[in-house]
What does this fold into?
Amino acid sequence: MSEEVTCGPCGKVFKSNEAYLKHKCEKTGFNPTQIEHQDALTGGRFSLQSKAALARGAKRAAK
Amino acid sequence: MAATVQIAEFNTVGETKTASITNSNMGSTDAVNLDPVAYPVVPGEYTYEKWQKVEVTAMGGSSKIDNLKIWRTGALGGSAAHLTNARETSYGGAETFATPLVTVSTLADQAMPTSEPTDANLGIGGALAGELTAAGLSDYLIHQIGTDAGDVAGSTSTMNYQYDETA
It folds into this structure.
């Protein structure tokens, strides 16, 4: 398996996943570990999906 | 805070990874974010397989990501069939990457659900009950569209990748 990772939004290529995760994406202005990165790509929908995921998790944990 | 989750796609013999994809366009080339107009499918033939994973890049203080569900909403054109390895029963486990096929997939042999599955249909660590407690990746989601000789137009639909998150 290639270790290289391309950032889909900005197209930069990194030699490792660690390097990819630490970069500041030129398209979003955030790094891929930040929620803002996904929000920038989805018009803020990621945060709504994240809240829904947490609600589902809480509901299952309560059962 | 909450987890940051994205979809990664893997292409070519080198298993080249593109992170944070923004579409799952399918066509007659093995490439991420492909242009389906430039790479149409000959009626009666198959698209290249898509090999994708759900990727958690940061847990954001949460303790667990699990219960992965994959489905499509929206109709395909003509008599096309959308096939996948995602399944709620008799799950095949974590597949090992193989160069994406443009002939009929031997691994994506289930109909892609068109509504939210009742239970997880994509595994983590080879099991539908698997979970991520740190940044990492799901098993491979493999999917492909098979067209019919009478199909004359493509279509646009939505892929849904859902997870549960425990704070």
Observations:
- The mean pLDDT of chain A is 95.
- Residues 45-62 of chain A form the longest helix (18 residues).
- Chain A touches chain B through 29 residues (CB under 8 Å).
- The radius of gyration of chain A is 15 Å.
